[in-house]
Amino acid sequence: MNSKFTIFILSCILSIHSFAQNVGIGTAMPASKLHIMGQTRIETNAEALHLVGTNHVYQGFYPNGFGAGRKAWLGFGGSGNTTLNISNEFPNGHLTLWTVGNGNVGVSTSSPQTKFHVNGAETIGGDVTIASGSFAGLPFVYGGTHRALWFGSYDGITPVGSDYGLIYAEYTNAGGLDKYTLNICSGDNANNQAINDDRVFVGNINFSTISQGGITVENQRVYIGAGKQTPSYTLDINGNTRCTSGTWTASDKRFKKNVETIPNALGIINQLRGTSYDYRTEEFSQFNFPTETTLGFIAQEVKTALPNCVSEDKDGYHSVNYQAIIPVLVEAIKEQQKQIESLQSQVLQLKMVRL
Predict the structure, then answer these.
(1) Per-residue pLDDT tens digits for 32-70
(2) Could you say which DSSP state residue 29 is in?
(3) CATH topology of domain 253-354
């Protein structure tokens, strides 16, 4: 067979070219050791392609042509690197995982039960949106004592510093009874005590919008009302409250010492002034004061007579403990009753003298 014809046939069939120690398939100008122009198919029952090296072992992607530069890569980023990276280098590019039909995507699991199933700890540094046609949620399925959703600085193992929050479910078994607790905490939770009943424990946290109000829990104090306010009392409520079964104050004598009857109670009450007033709602709209006329005391006036019945918050505003005034009123009535009885006795004696 003519040698030129043989070379021509081989070129047509294989289109293999050698140029400057490079091999080209489908190109006469190979730009690398092996340059293939066109689709490639490898059929084997073993590993089809080996990428071997000692540094930067990866596969690059050039969707806009080699001259436009690499736009994505898959592989190991450096010598001794044990992390497999998938990187999209387009400035506004995305990374999408999908399956055909109703398949699921699993991480560290070969049988994913949901669209995205992660078996193990997960750290997310950014915003996450979870949505579906009828329900959106982020479930945590666990078989141990608890699993947590962390917010804030996190090194992959534990929270960093005190600027963090978490939501976690906890399971305990006490006396054969299963107990489940939903905990919502933030900051240093090292001193949290175990909770052994079905309830919600709230640490330092805020549930609110500035316009609609909400709940702020901080330093074991709770604020309920408009905006995000730092609570000044154990329970600080901005607005009206209602209790259908009464409120109770611990008053057992075993809790107390230095018990004394209140002296000069009538004199104290005489220093108080009952008033009617309207709140300056426009100037202090953040407090959600009522608009109707109200009856009560002026805190600064009460403070001069009963300083223990008045408190001052971090902003210098005063509040009155109306309940604490009741014992003073009781003793004042008793003192007044003695005066009435004394006067009645004197009147009776005068009547007897006239007779």
Answers:
(1) 888 888 888 888 888 888 888 887 788 889 999 888 998
(2) S
(3) Arc Repressor Mutant, subunit A (1.10.10)
